[in-house]
Amino acid sequence: MPNFSFFAMNTPWFDLTPVRVAVIEEGLTSIGENVFSEHPERPGRPQVLERVTIPSTVTTIGDYAFGGCTKLEGVTIPNSVVSIGHSAFADCNSMAYANIGTGVRTLGNGTFERCMSLTELVLPEGLTEFGDYCFRMCIGLTEFTIPGTVTEMRTYPFDACEKLKTITVGNGVTQFTPFLFSACSGLETVVIPGSVQVFSDNCFRDCPKLKSITIPGSVNRIGSYAFSNCPKLETVTFTGTVETLAEHSFSGSGLKSIDLAGVKNIEANAFYACGQLTAVTVANSVISMGSATFSKCSKLATVTIGTGLTELPSYAFSQTGITGITIPGTIKTIGQQAFEECPLLTDVTIGEGVETIKNGAFKWCDALTNIVLANSVATAETLAFQNCFELAEITFGSGFSRLNSLAFLNCGKLKTVRVLATTPPSLETGVGLKLFPVEDDTLYVPQGRKSAYQASSWGGEFMTINEM
């Protein structure tokens, strides 16, 4: 099969006689769209181009210029080239190397997408941006350096680069874009510069070998699912103030412990189902948490809650292995089902300042035997302690004023109830239902208040009322 030299590159490759080696002569300034690619009008045409020589006069390489040249072995792009178009070398499955000249400033969308044999690729200093899917599924790449001149990276640029093990990012980047390194199944190490301010959604999602990450002090947001499903990610270190951890940002990761010092706002499910997590410090810096923040962290045993929160959200620690919890008085509300299905929880301390225990907050806490509510607690809502089968004693503080129906449903061992309030709290009982289910239970009330309790709805709940 013959070789050809070209001076003018305006004719699509499908109109030319197939050649294995193409030498483009000096003087040409642009390689147009689809010139060497498999044209969509000729999908069955065989690809035979193995080598191409691009002269130093070329400044642009157009969209799909070499796309689908499945036998192209490699390419050297001269320093004269400034921009390389969308999918210019996409699906060049045999390409092992790409030498990119120092003049290149932009790479288009999918420029080297699915170049599965590509193992040698160095981006030049001076490059400022590359597009969506630029290196997606380049499964031969093992390490990569993003030059400090790069300021913009689009979505999915390294998605599914399965063998990519080490990434060094230059200090021109301010945002890790969506799906930046997602599904890089071999990625272990990332060097992150202090210029990065945002980790966008899904940027490291499904990186099963990533072991640790240090978040620079410049970062103010970590996006949704940013590190989700990273099962070997054991350590995350925050070095500055992070305004927001978005929903599911670390869900399903391999974290063993986490100190949230410096973090301000945590959105829903941020650490959902982190199955190896054993210890959490919710630092004083944290001022809000979304629902189910640590739900289904089955090994989570130790939790320290700082003074920045005013509310524990719904399902915050549900279905965890917590054994004891101290809730500081700065928290006003314990949210709905916040500790639901914590089967090992035996010790609960509720600080002075807590006011409301919402629906099902301690539902299905099978091991809980005794609880003392602070004097500030005014309300326990419906099903607050449902199915706490071992609960035998509870003390309501002096400020308690309302107990909702079914709060102690199926608490069959609750025989001792103490109320420190001088005025009998209101009881919202269902028709034909006892709020306190045990028949031989005893109520203890303040001195001189027995008659007041007997005359209230509490009198119908207890066989025995004694003064303390």
CATH class of the largest domain: Alpha Beta
Do you know the CATH topology of the largest domain? Leucine-rich repeat, LRR (right-handed beta-alpha superhelix)
Mean pLDDT: 92
Q: What characteristic shape results from the CA principal axes?
A: rod-shaped
Based on CA atoms alone, the radius of gyration comes out at 32 Å
In helices, the fraction of residues equals under 10%
Query: Judging by the overall fold, what is the CATH architecture of the largest domain?
Result: Alpha-Beta Horseshoe
Strand content: 25-35%
The DSSP helix count reads 1
- In order across it, which strands form the biggest sheet? 3-5-7-9-11-13
Q: What is the name of the CATH superfamily of the largest domain?
A: Ribonuclease Inhibitor
Number of domains: 3
Structural class: mainly beta
Distance between the termini: 105 Å
How would you characterize the largest beta sheet? Answer: 6 strands, parallel
Low-confidence stretches: 1-11
Oligomer: single chain
